[in-house]
Design brief:
The complex is a heterodimer of chains A (265) and B (252). By secondary structure, chain A is mostly helical. Helix content of chain A is 86%, strand content 0%. Chain A has helices at residues 3-40, 47-57, 62-85, 93-131, 134-140, 145-182, 188-198, 201-227, 232-263. Chain B folds into two domains: 1-82 and 156-163 and 187-252, Rossmann fold, CATH 3.40.50; 86-155, no CATH class. The chains are: A mainly alpha (265), B alpha/beta (252). At the A-B interface, helix 5 of A face strand 6 of B.
């Protein structure tokens, strides 16, 4: 074989193993998700765990999600004003802000912030439970770790993310409103009027669907990486990083898919 | 008589590393069996195979004459409910109080479960005053006792102890050994302990088996370990660096 052919051969091997590895990961993750979904619908259920997780994911994420929304909404309004002024369309600020926030920025930034907070915490908690044999201990104590640990986290995330994003949307619009009325001298009543006029039911429902899907991916990534962590403290650290990175990517990908399906036609 | 637990030709490997290489073992009902062997000889893997936490590649594991390899779903859960296990690090749930840990597998109202937990804590020499503490507020020895209480709380038929004295001072280790021996005798439980602590072996065991390179190389009564005439057992019991067991200091 010539040197070129050898190099090409090795490159193909490397490419092949990356592709196989990717498919294997997707397969393992899909299997994990199916097992979880199969167990969630079957008793026993743990309402106390569910409430605790809803508080952890929803209530304690409010400050960070709210602040993100307010600042982003304000910045968005300012940029639309500057951009719009160039072709005498500065009056589009309320309409474009509300559409931008509710359709995209509210759910996506809310999802990313919650992923940073929650997917990492879940991966660290379940990862530590794995390496200290607490997950094995659950099994010997007549408790299915999927039903006790994973199920409540995923159900809680799917339930509370839409509520969080609802708050995030409202605060984002409010951020735009405050900047527009306070700094850009918009009329408050007219601003709110235009906002209400341009906000359609589809915008809100797609926002809620996105939020629920993001919630599912956040909890799934946190639990999957935590549940399968190994190798002590370093392994838990790896699981935490992987959980956040993969949740981010899945959120951004799912966002694109839902946007194209709902608004693309 | 059918043994409580019977292993026949159990094999388990992880990748290229063979961990269990044909384990044969019988544990009689009510017997306290101790498995000795160095670190990395497959002791924990063997216990996890019996518990159904790991699935052996081949071979048979029977409990009361019924095959347990390959159990799934409810049958596996029912199988696992017959065991209590004391994990090496205790594996207490650090988000729950001591009494909630101990009564974790019990049913009933909170008051009933708390009362049962306090009773069980008394069996391991702990007072009701620790019931509301968190595991992190307890010393290592007390954590071990709470873990022991949790393992026996649901009145299992079979108890597994994974390195029960690791990380304890010699006096606390002796206390735990006494406790295990008393519990096993009083509750008439079949017990399987894995350890490399010879003091534990002499206190806890009715019979002893030695695991080396994935096989049982010796099996006999406790009093036989000093006169086993088996070079592996001799070297281990007396803790000699020289002998047939070569420490792998370098990973191949």
């Amino acid at each position: 074989m010539t040197a070129f052919a050898t190099t090409l051969f090795h490159a193909l091997i490397a490419l092949g193993s990356v592709v196989i590895g990717l498919f294997a990961s997707v397969g393992r993750l899909t299997r994990f998700a199916l097992v979880v979904l199969g167990r969630i619908v079957r008793p026993p259920w743990y309402p106390a765990q569910l409430v605790e997780q809803m508080l952890k994911i929803g209530w304690f994420s409010l400050p960070v999600v709210g602040l993100t929304a307010v600042f982003t909404g304000s910045a968005l309004a300012q940029q639309i004003y500057i951009g719009g002024s160039r072709f005498n369309a500065a009056s589009t600020v309320p309409a474009v802000t509300v559409i931008g926030i509710v359709r995209e920025l509210g759910p996506v930034l809310g999802g990313l912030m919650v992923a940073g907070r929650v997917a990492s915490a879940m991966a660290a908690e379940l990862g530590t439970m794995r390496v200290t044999e607490q997950i094995d201990a659950l099994t010997t104590l007549r408790t299915d770790p999927f039903q006790y640990l994973v199920g409540p986290r995923i159900v809680a995330a799917v339930l509370v993310m839409p509520l969080l994003v609802l708050v995030s949307n409202a605060l984002g619009v409010m951020g735009g409103f405050l900047l527009a009325t306070g700094r850009l001298h918009f009329n408050a009543a007219a601003y709110l009027n235009t906002t209400a006029q341009y906000l359609k039911w589809d915008d809100i429902s797609s926002s809620m669907v996105k939020a629920a899907v993001f919630g599912f991916f956040i909890a799934l990534m946190g639990c999957y990486h935590g549940y399968h962590s190994s190798g002590g403290a370093a392994g838990v650290g790896r699981a935490t990083t992987n959980a956040v990175v993969s949740a981010f990517i899945l959120i951004l990908m799912a966002n694109l898919v839902i946007t194209v399906i709902v608004f693309g036609s | 008589m059918t043994p409580k637990i019977r292993l026949r030709d159990v094999h388990k490997r992880f990748g290229a590393k063979v961990v269990l290489d044909g384990v044969d073992l019988d544990i009689a009902t009510g017997e306290s069996m101790v498995i000795i062997g160095g670190s990395g000889t497959g002791k924990s893997v063997m216990i996890k195979c019996i518990l159904g936490l790991l699935r052996p590649d081949s071979g048979s594991i029977q409990v009361d004459g019924a095959e347990v390899v390959g159990l799934k779903g409810r049958a596996l859960a029912a199988h696992q409910a017959r065991f209590g296990m004391l994990f090496q690090g205790g594996a207490l749930f650090d988000s729950l109080s001591v009494w909630r840990n101990v009564s974790f597998a019990l049913d009933g109202s909170a008051a009933d479960r708390r009362a049962a937990a306090v009773d069980t804590l008394a069996r391991v020499g702990l007072g009701a005053d620790v019931a509301d503490l968190r595991p992190s507020e307890l010393s290592g020895g007390m954590q071990k006792r709470v873990a022991l209480a949790r393992a026996i709380a649901s009145k299992p038929e079979i108890l597994f102890f994974d390195e029960p004295t690791t990380g304890l001072d010699p006096i606390m280790a002796d206390v735990i050994n006494d406790l295990i021996r008393t519990l096993v005798t009083d509750l008439k439980i079949t017990a399987l302990t894995i350890t490399h602590d010879m003091a534990s072996v002499r206190k806890i065991a009715d019979s002893v088996a030695m695991l080396y390179q994935g096989r049982i190389v010796w099996h006999g009564p406790r009093d036989g370990i000093d006169s086993a005439g088996n070079p592996f057992v001799d070297q281990f019991v007396h803790g000699r660096a020289e002998g047939p067991i070569k420490m792998q200091l370098k990973r191949l």
